[in-house]
Amino acid sequence: xxxxxxxxxxxxxxxxxxxxxxxxxxxxxxxxxxxxxxxxxxxxxxxxxxxxxxxxxxxxxxxxxxxxxxxxxxxxxxxxxxxxxxxxxxxxxxxxxxxxxxxxxxxxxxxxxxxxxxxxxxxxxxxxxxxxxxxxxxxxxxxxxxxxxxxxxxxxxxxxxxxxxxxxxxxxxxxxxxxxxxxxxxxx
Length: 188
Prior knowledge:
mainly alpha, two-stranded antiparallel sheet, 4 strands, 53% helix, 7% strand
């Protein structure tokens, strides 16, 4: 059975992740902020909890903290089977193949699990919810990220387009803060 936000935040805090740096804040702050951003955008609780645990096993880019995969059953017991699976898949996705899956159409979407090497096939709802987790993670950290505002921009725009008005509104609010490109010096 899923636990409350406060119980989950306490569990994460007890892991000591408030001492782990993540995009110019601490990792705990980032995880909780992803949850709140998703909640504010109207995402379902189960998907918000997946967002809170979106990188708990490490991701292709973030390895600053990761629980061993043997912890999956414990996490599943706290947030539920579907939320844990979405969190795991966000950790395990090979981003290049996930980005390719954004161009697929139909009722199933396939990408590669970078940990096992297996192909993962999701139905439309699960793929859309994985897109939500992945998108809101990026939207929460992009203003502080060393990868910059342009990182995988087309993929994130595709996610936003498929997820509809709430995602689009959140994307626009975040990207309204993107710094304007520096003007070219005269005569260059």
